[in-house]
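Weekly sync notes, structure subgroup
Attendees: PM, AL, DS (notes)

Item 1: joint prediction request from the bench team. They want all three components modeled as one assembly rather than separately. Inputs as received:
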Amino acid sequence: MIDWTFDLLLAGGLLGLAWQIVASRILFRSVVLFIVFGLLMAVTWARLAAPDLALAEAAIGAGITGALLLSAYRALLPDRDDGGEGGSPPPAVPPWAAVGVAVLVGVLIAGIGWAVVGLEPPEQTAGRLALAKLEASGVENPVTAVLLNFRSIDTLSEVVVLFVAFLAARVVAQDLVHAGPGDWLRASRREPLLVQPLIAFIAPMTVLAAGYLLWAGASQPGGAFQAGAVLAALGVLLRLTGRLRPTEETSLPERLVLVGGLVLFSAIGLASAGVASAVLEYPPGWAYELILLIETALTLAIALPLVLLFSGSGGLRGEVR
Amino acid sequence: MALLDALSAGLLLLGGLFFLTGTVGLLRFPGVFDRLHALTKADNLGLGCVVAALILQAETGWVAAKLVLIWMLALIAATVSAHLIARFSLRARGGARRTPP
Amino acid sequence: MQMLYLGLAVFLLLNLLAGLWRVHRGPTAADRMLAALLFGTTTVAVLLLLAEAMGLPALRDVALLFVVLAAVIAVAFTRVPRRFEKGEE
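Output from the run, pasted for the record:
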């Protein structure tokens, strides 16, 4: 009974937040509520016993997207005095139309849900097949097995998508007007006192956490995406505090990292076509090592585009202080 | 074993009480600095109580160590966040000299 | 014990939802931000309780991630000293 209370509160909270995010007149309030929404989503994934998703949601939804929205907000309203209490223009759609559409969509979703709940579960689901074949996959975590072995074509496509997103962002990017020092750098007395100790402590911790998530992803929730997202959050922190400067040109190591994951994954997949029976199938006995290798490359290949998308630049370089 | 459970239960309730005072402080105190003060201290103490209760119930030493690590990191994050926000608000009010204590 | 974990989790969730009122009211940006940032602490407590109650030790890793990211959000919010906003990137 108590868990029903929890779940109902959670669901109600999510709905209320979603409504307020869209309907709020004050833009900054929407941004903050969106970050809180990310927090509650992670709790929702936890309640649904999906720790992998909760990890990814924590890193990307609450961390990176939150920082992105805050940066975007600052870029929108540079002249506000106290950090922004800007209003937004009144909505262009009349309320009755909005309510009408909302009711229609609600009825549609409820109808679909009712139909789905009434269906018989199929005898042989892909999930059960995957769980049955888990030992042959080389890893113990079913999520990693599906992502990196049974459906590795999907993961490959996802990495391609991320890479293409980065390229698209470069195409439409504006020139970096001030590729100069980070915001706090020049007058170092302006930087709050605790930032440097924070970075000194958090940076190694985060790298350690990313490594842990990557390594543990084989047997418990974790994996390349989560580790990559954590590293990207670290990159965002370094960029925000000026330790990393944006540059127009993508340097050679960065290019290698960006395409490295993709190339490695494809190369192993194609090579396996000769050694094993099909493309993207691992030779027996080598699955675990190959998966770990691919995941390492993927971690970097996920983290770097995310950080570059956040900083809106072609590359980054360290700032000597 | 029952003593351990009782102790954990007591710590959990205490943690809940601290969280409640934090929320009350957030909602009822006037001014950013008061709210910041209340929330940071009360919530982190509450978290400490909850962590302590869970440590008593932990299966292995590794789990207990991880819980301690989480609490310490939470303290650090809260410290830095509170410092940054306070500094931000201070500057918004025109600096330390023009802000009444 | 199980009931106590879940019961406390419900209580903390109620606290969180109540704190949203502060985000709604403001009046300053710092008010909204501080409420949101310190919801992180509540969420960490909820996740730890759920880890015990649901028997999912992986949720402790999620809690670990959350505390690390709370610092990132704080820095993101207070990043730019306003005086430097024009003319800096």
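Discussion: Chain C is about 80% helix and 0% strand.
Action: AL to compare against the crosslinking data before next sync.
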